[in-house]
Amino acid sequence: xxxxxxxxxxxxxxxxxxxxxxxxxxxxxxxxxxxxxxxxxxxxxxxxxxxxxxxxxxxxxxxxxxxxxxxxxxxxxxxxxxxxxxxxxxxxxxxxxxxxxxxxxxxxxxxxxxxxxxxxxxxxxxxxxxxxxxxxxxxxxxxxxxxxxxxxxxxxxxxxxxxxxxxxxxxxxxxxxxxxxxxxxxxxxxxxxxxxxxxxxxxxxxxxxxxxxxxxxxxxxxxxxxxxxxxxxxxxxxxxxxxxxxxxxxxxxxxxxxxxxxxxxxxxxxxxxxxxxxxxxxxxxxxxxxxxxxxxxxxxxxxxxxxxxxxxxxxxxxxxxxxxxxxxxxxxxxxxxxxxxxxxxxxxxxxxxxxxxxxxxxxxxxxxxxxxxxxxxxxxxxxxxxxxxxxxxxxxxxxxxxxxxxxxxxxxxxxxxxxxxxxxxxxxxxxxxxxxxxxxxxxxxxxxxxxxxxxxxxxxxxxxxxxxxxxxxxxxxxxxxxxxxxxxxxxxxxxxxxxxxxxxxxxxxxxxxxxxxxxxxxxxxxxxxxxxxx
Length: 534
Hints:
With about 525 residues, the chain is mainly β. Helices cover about 0% and strands about 35% of the residues. It contains one helix and 36 strands. It has a five-stranded mixed β-sheet with strand order 2-8-7-4-5, covered by helices on one side. It has a four-stranded antiparallel β-sheet with strand order 12-11-14-15, with no helix packed on it.
């Protein structure tokens, strides 16, 4: 059996096999003399469990000619093998000990059958006790491809929409094949391995069936690939189930949502440089999606990259557009854009490059001359957040807010023909971290700022005016904001907000501690430690 097969699966398989009478157990008579110990079956893959006691788990072999071994203090030993009916199929075969080890090859065993065996010291009659009775089964044939079905996403179409959960049922097509699990993957190449619990593995019930719930994030055709794995670790050929998930005419849009489930998400790198997508409502650090490090747009790792999202670039996207930049000194100044259809992981398509706006407009969007020190790339940007939409005609659009030369700037519609708007001129915003909570129920915006030297968190109102424009006067001096908390940088190196994480209509803060624990807040209070990040 595969090394990866879980003890629980083995035990379940063993119970069924014993109940079916596959393993007979001849009585052993103990007599004094030479000893025989350590009966073992040599096989590839290794037999999991020796099945050599009353409660042991009999393993299954992928060979019909296993090698049986044991240790003995006698010059030789005798091997006996019985089938399920108690008939000897390998009778009193002697093997000479070499350095205390004896072994024999048992040829021609039947596929699907169970066997018991013992070893005696072969010195003289009555010279020693046999080993305990051991058991194994033979399963050399890979299981047939399973049947796959779903009423939520039928092959003929007409089911649920992209972004909605659907149940898929797998069924072994041969009841005698001993299927113990199914391996599955949506829109990707199936991996290899046994039945170790993990992503893409589901245990089969006693009737050879299993169900999984999957969410095809993007609209269009999808392929679910499934393999059956039997008790010996044999993996059958993959079966493809193709279905179409139509676009939802009323998608559950929520600012901060990147995986198209209508709930804001937190995006953070793990210790290996992968990008974790953590659902705001999960209550733990378990990711809903892991974007591999190799799919990062820079350097083969998401660590050290700034990832911002809150809003859509284009009316048809169901989930946040995601922007990524290298925030390290001396960076390239590039900003990468993923127009996100909810079909994570990011990186399956190459991101587009977004240039920094080279022209300027005022708050009323009238053209004005850019100042001489206006940035022409994102190289010298000190802070960057996805602020929310400032366009009355596109309330779910995206606007970036950054700090350049100590002043706040809006980057309007950065995905197309963006324009820069300078919001402050006194150069007072150096030394502050920016957090953008997003709009409230009335469309008013806000900016939260953390003073890096003190950890003081302040709120700055950006109210929406009657004509649909916004009043940015509250951003003139960061020191004039309303103090709403204290989050020292040493304790919380990372501070952010993906919007309303708990659905109470109030934007929520999250933080990563110095010990890499993810902490969420109800608003900015009542911290909840979700546990350590991977």
